[in-house]
Design a protein that fits this description.
Rossmann fold; Dihydrodipicolinate Reductase, domain 2; eight-stranded mixed beta sheet; 34% helix
Amino acid sequence: MKDELRVALWGCGGMGRSLAQALLATGEARLVVAYDAVPERAAELTDLCGAEAAGSAEALLAYSGLDGVIIALPPYLHAPAAQQAAEAGLGIFLEKPMALTVAACQEINAAVRKARVPLMVGHVLRYYEPYRTILRWQREGRLSRPFAASIWRFSDANRPADPTHWRASLAKSGGFIFEVGAHELDMLRCLMGQPRTVAAVREKALPRPQEWEDFISLQIRFAEGGAGIYEGGAGSFAPGYGFRLFFPEMTLVSQAAFDPRALQVYRAGGESISLEGEFSTEHPVQAELRDWLRALRGEAAVPITGEEATRTVALAEAGLRAAASGEIVRYEVPA
């Protein structure tokens, strides 16, 4: 069994660079080849990482001795790229969102099953603290399922938007709910289980050169009980990211969700709980890639499969249907 795996990178933009650097930092794999539609981006990254630049996607996937490929392309390109990688017989790490429709996700899953290759989708929020520890507490039985949850995440409307960038396009990025909100929708699913119904509102109000939602809110009822609220958007002049999670055992609150030191824990009667030593110091992107590499080596199951990631895409789709119709829609479990 290989100690050091040979990995390709398809897509050398900001996320591709981050994944390449995290991969090398694991010490468990080499980045041997990379491809980007902009050759200068690939050349810059391969110089940095000591890899070779491929002249085409086909050349990348045909590179000798590969164990897997990281796909860090815009979401609208995920489905064709992942199918092509599966047909090449490579294990796949696919950035989130898995795709922009359930149908596209199902096409990927079918290709992966046919080729019998492992696929992991990069829902990295599961590896960020304090979410990582909260999910661990659930697995350990220290927390049960929340009866309610509220997560909000707003980007800064003062930040300049490039109307020519793929992120500005709904057709290419899926908008705020897919490009950003997929993280939080996935987390709500992790904490609370399968959704049952979704109500939503969606607003585009500010004269900004992008198509992202300025505000979007989903209210979700879950099949095993409980309610969740997600709020986000690109139209706030007061950016922020936080959550309030209501467990029967305690209430967890944060006004700075990416800072574990901001987590506040409230228990009945004011009983305190020590958080010292609870949080992992492992880099979240390195952690998710280590899990993928373990799956490539056959040492562990893939932790976030295509089927799992499809359910998050289905929740985002249900939210958009609910916002468009003004009605409560039933969440449809993907086949």
